[in-house]
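Reading a protein record of the kind used here takes only a little practice. Think of the row as the fold of the chain written in a discrete alphabet. A record is reproduced here so that you can trace the correspondence yourselves:
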Amino acid sequence: MAFKVPKITTPQEVAARLNSGEKLYILDVREPEEWTDGHVAGAIHIPLGLLSERMPELDLSQELIVICRSGNRSGLACELLSEKGFNVVNMAGGLNNWTDKLV
């Protein structure tokens, strides 16, 4: 049975929330070279391959928006995090569909 991410958002919704001043808890699971090329300001960077060992760094009490390049790796991260009790939201389409600024 395929895992279904319970919550999904779009890059446009995330950008609009950030631009309205909302403080979001964002996890970027891309590789270090992808992160260096540009990322969402304020995001936490933990590559997918390191997520299991670095999971204790994340706040279990907050909604966590998970992002990657296309939405596939973030979907896998959401599955893993959801199984551990995190309240996760996958940003479908990933940074490929991001039109706002990156740092």
Summary: The chain has four helices and five strands. Helices lie at 11-19, 32-37, 51-54, 72-83. The chain has a mean pLDDT of 94. The chain has one domain: 8-97.
